[in-house]
From TrEMBL:
Residues 1-98 form the OmpR/PhoB-type domain. This is OmpR/PhoB-type domain-containing protein. PANTHER family: TRANSCRIPTIONAL REGULATOR REDD (PTHR35807:SF1), TRANSCRIPTIONAL REGULATOR REDD-RELATED (PTHR35807). Belongs to the AfsR/DnrI/RedD regulatory family.
Length: 936
């Protein structure tokens, strides 16, 4: 099959991949599930853990990762001939690189989103096209909990689109032609009042008023019987209008609704509250809002929306009002404002229909001409603002649904929305421009206090002001509360206010007025959380360390990683935590104080204790894994199994271990402090043990850094070259490749400039080792050759032998086995002549590798066993285990499976004794492969 045809990935029906309309074989059901799990997030990286959870749920098989990799490999092969779709390995997981237009689900979502911004005829056209993509139940042929949940979600989304299509058709005057379809839909959804209303209106327009009234009676009886409630206001109003034979129910639609304002009046609403004072900083945010306005005026085809998100009390409303007043002249037809009370401490969120009614009043609609139906009111509102240059400022919004009825359809309008939640629905569905509002800088915080309290008072207590700014952490509401208190008590020193804030924390920022109380503001944000989110919010506050990553958070909560991701995302969207560029989550200090209080008041001692035990266990077990990678020869220590719900992080290699330890060093120290505070003395000791190698290397690096700094002031060039060489080697050992090369090249330049062949030789050898660690054998070989040439001229046979072995090893890695064998044989002769059994064993091991990879399997076995004898004599069990692992491969190549099994079982036992889990797992896979028909 060629790769140039039209490609489609289908999820809205049976999971399939089609090329020019012809399906290709995707393999077993779980393999199709892997494809679906990638396709729902097409072009985005899906982690291995998330993929495994989507395929197997919370109970994956023992070898889930290996099986998953196998499925992904087969999918790559299946899609190899398809140019438009590829499964790609990315940092952190896998991605289906195809483009959203290739996947029917994403085409459906795009059409549905576009339908929300058009007129009714456009809505009908787009929704009919979107619904035409469905070919049965979504994800047919894929089983599992994730598939079932996703199938339910997509089914509901399809229903919503069908409901929206019916509404649009009804607004266009349809009726009788919809009865049959709506009849089937009400049978499937007997308690859905929206469907019931659509069906009643369609029946009425078909001349079947009695049937419409009878259907209302049936719905009413069923609601009372099953839910104990009457139909909602919309259904009741429609029932009354049918009873009254309201002619508007059958009126033919017009191109545009008439503007029903008082005769001869031109209403220009000016609803913006007063501009805030003082207003400081926010220059970048104001510039971005300005840019949005300019872009909208030039290119927009729909309404321009700016969605401003941030924590409660961070200054979103002040920013929006300040910008709105600066640009009021850009909106000559008026400015509308409403506080939707989404997170007000003392009230419930405003129903958007109430806000629409308020806007209609502001636009001059006479009460007697106000439509009764909320949908009609929204349509009238959009008609009145169509073509107008107006600003709508929708403050304190809960979510996208909260503001959807208030969005005009006209591209002449500008909408500014503030919310504590990141309104992703507006961003994806309405093209809104997201703007996140963060804390003030120290300079801006000082200016705010100065503007409120005066320069003299600020300058009189600079030390107290510095501490005050630090305690408030740039949080505008906190600064404003303190400034207000100081302003109303002019004789109270700022030092006294600072001491109160230092000692009593959030109590100093409380007030009887909930709008001037930080605890009240944060409490209203917390009330909007689910129970699971609120528990996680409290646990994050008491977790050790300045921030937290997903793996540690999953252990802290005890939830599966995918579920933890969803909860963290919800808290991030609620602006209670923030995610940095490295994907780590942190809390503002004041929010952490509040969350800590809730953790101790709302979470049981057992819950907190278990969470801390899990997260300390996460850091301990992952640090242990890192240490085993840094020092595989170090005797292991017994940790015992982690607590249930703990998910230690796997680390693939030495660089990953160092990177993890570098990032998490403060968390490990904090975890050790937490363990000590809870009298978990065994964990304290084990954390110290796990960090020993890392601390040793960090100390070594610090030592050689100090030596290099000192050597730069000494006259001896050899000393300077040596110091930079050893510092470069220390960086290389820590996986810091760029720093290592920088110091090594500096050492080489010094040695060459001062004609010091000894330092040149040692530095070339160090560069060879550094490039080997980076995986560049050609660079490593080049430097090893230069080291060899120099050691020969210096008449240093022991160093010459080491360099010969290095040249041989890198030549072998590059496939030049003749050169490799020649150099390793020469190295072996020198090692034996100078009685260096450790280096001799290492070279024999290299010769075994060369012989095996060049097809001389019997000779490879001979060399490996010679090396093994020496390693055992020297007591080097770690190298012995590696050689046992290596010698199994030529045995297997010769068909001697039993001998291969014997040496691999011996290697496996040594790996387990040394705690080398990754090596043990790899050896197990080799043993499993021996049992395959082809012998692996």
């Amino acid at each position: 099959m060629g790769g140039s045809g039209e490609v489609e990935v289908r999820l809205l029906g049976e999971v399939a991949v089609l090329v020019d309309g012809c399906g290709i074989e995707l393999g077993p059901a779980r393999q199709r599930c892997v494809l679906a799990a990638l396709a729902v997030d097409v072009d985005r990286v899906v982690s291995v853990n998330v993929l495994a959870e989507r395929v197997w749920g919370d109970h994956p098989p023992l070898r889930a990762r290996a099986t998953l990799v196998n499925y992904l490999s087969r999918l790559r092969q299946v899609l190899a001939a398809v140019d438009a779709a590829h499964v790609v390995r990315r940092s952190g997981g896998y991605s289906l690189e195809a483009g959203q237009a290739v996947v029917d689900l994403h085409r459906f979502d795009d059409l549905y989103a576009r339908a929300r911004t058009g007129d009714d005829r456009q809505i009908v056209a787009l929704l009919e096209k979107a619904l035409g993509l469905w070919r049965g139940e979504a994800l047919t042929g894929v089983d599992g909990d994730w598939a079932a949940t996703e199938r339910d979600r997509l089914h509901q989304r399809r229903l919503n689109a069908e409901h929206d299509l019916a509404d649009a058709l009804l607004r266009l005057g349809h009726g009788e032609d919809l009865v049959a379809g709506l009849s089937a839909r009400v049978a499937d959804n007997p308690l859905d009042e929206r469907v019931a209303g659509q069906y009643m209106l369609a029946l009425y327009r078909a001349g079947r008023a009695a049937d419409a009234l009878e259907h209302y009676r049936q719905v009413q009886e069923r609601l009372v019987e099953e839910l104990g409630t009457d139909p909602g206001e919309a259904a009741q109003q429609l029932h009354l209008r049918i009873l009254a034979a309201d002619p508007a129910l059958t009126a033919a639609p017009t191109a545009s609704a008439p503007v029903t304002v008082a005769a001869g009046s031109v209403v220009v609403p000016r609803q913006l509250p007063a501009a805030p004072t003082p207003f400081v900083g926010r220059h970048d945010e104001l510039d971005r809002l300005d840019a949005t306005l300019r872009t909208g005026s030039d290119t927009a085809t729909t309404v321009v929306i700016s969605a401003i998100a941030g924590a409660g009390g961070i200054g979103k409303t002040w920013l929006a009002l300040h910008w709105a007043h600066r640009h009021a002249d850009r909106f000559p037809d008026g400015q509308l404002f409403v506080d939707l009370r989404g997170f007000s401490p003392d009230s419930t969120p405003m129903d958007p229909t109430v806000a629409v009614r308020g806007f209609l009043d502001a636009l001059g609609v006479e009460p007697g001409r106000m439509p009764v139906d909320p949908h009609a009111q929204t349509a009238l509102f959009r008609s009145l603002v169509a073509g107008k240059r107006m600003l709508l400022l929708l403050d304190n919004t809960v979510d996208t649904a909260h503001v959807a009825p208030l969005l005009p359809g006209s591209d002449t309008c500008t909408v500014m929305i503030t919310s504590r939640n990141r309104l992703s629905g507006l961003i994806t569905g309405h093209g809104a421009h997201h703007l996140s509002v963060d804390i003030l800088t120290d300079t801006e915080a000082r200016r705010l206090l100065t503007d409120r309290l005066g320069t003299a008072r600020i300058d009189a207590e600079t030390a107290a002001v510095d501490e005050l700014i630090g305690l408030c952490g740039g949080f505008p509401l906190a600064l404003s509360i303190i400034a207000g208190r100081a302003h109303s008590h002019p004789r109270l020193s700022l030092a006294a206010l600072t001491a109160e804030l230092r000692d009593s924390a959030l109590d100093a920022l409380d007030d009887t007025d909930p709008t001037a109380s930080l605890p009240a503001v944060l409490s209203s944000s917390r009330r909007a959380l689910t129970r699971e989110q609120a528990q996680t919010f409290g646990l994050l506050a008491i977790a050790p360390g300045p921030d937290i990553g997903l793996p540690a958070a999953a252990s802290l909560t005890g939830l599966p990683p995918a579920r933890t991701t969803a909860v963290l995302r919800a808290l991030d969207q609620a602006s209670l935590i923030s995610q940095d560029t490295d994907g780590r989550y942190r809390m503002h200090d004041l929010i952490r104080r509040y969350a800590t209080d809730t953790a101790h008041s709302d979470l049981s001692d057992d819950m907190r204790k278990a969470a801390l035990e899990r997260v300390v266990g996460f850091y301990l077990h992952t640090a242990h894994t890192a240490d085993r990678l840094l020092a595989p020869h170090r005797p292991p220590t017994l940790l015992g199994p982690p607590a249930p719900g703990t998910h230690p992080q796997p680390l693939p290699d030495h660089p990953a271990a160092l990177a993890w330890l570098d990032t998490h060093h403060p968390h490990l120290l904090a975890a050790q402090h937490t363990a000590a505070a809870h009298h978990r003395h065994h964990a304290v000791r084990l954390l110290d043990w796990a960090l020993h190698t890392f601390h040793q290397r960090r100390d070594e690096l610090a030592v050689w850094q100090a030596a290099a700094d000192a050597a730069d002031h000494l006259p001896d060039p050899a000393t300077r070259a040596q110091a930079h060489r050893l510092l470069g080697h220390a960086h290389a050992e820590l996986g810091r490749h760029e720093q290592a090369l920088g110091h090594l090249h500096q050492a080489l330049a010094l040695a060459e400039h001062h004609h010091d062949p000894t330092q040149q030789a040692h530095t070339h050898h160090a560069l060879s080792c550094a490039w080997e660690q980076q995986g560049d054998d050609q660079q490593a070989l080049d430097h090893a050759r230069q080291a060899l040439d120099l050691f020969r001229t210096l008449d240093q046979p022991v160093r010459e032998a080491i360099a010969l072995n290095a040249v041989g090893w890198h030549a072998a890695r590059l496939g030049d086995y003749d050169t490799a064998r020649e150099h390793c044989q020469a190295a072996l002769t020198l090692h034996r002549h100078h009685h260096d059994p450790g280096s001799e064993a290492n070279t024999l091991d290299r010769l075994g590798y060369i012989d095996h990879h060049s097809g001389h399997h019997h000779q490879a076995i001979h060399h490996y066993h010679q090396a093994l004898t020496l390693f055992r004599t020297l007591g080097n069990t770690s190298q012995a285990a590696d050689t046992l692992d290596s010698v199994g491969h030529p045995h297997a190549a010769l068909g001697d499976r039993e001998q291969a099994r014997a040496v691999w079982l011996e290697a496996l036992e040594l790996y387990r004794q040394e705690g080398r889990d990754d090596d043990a797992e790899r050896t197990l896979r080799q043993l499993d492969a021996l049992d395959q028909p082809d012998g692996g």
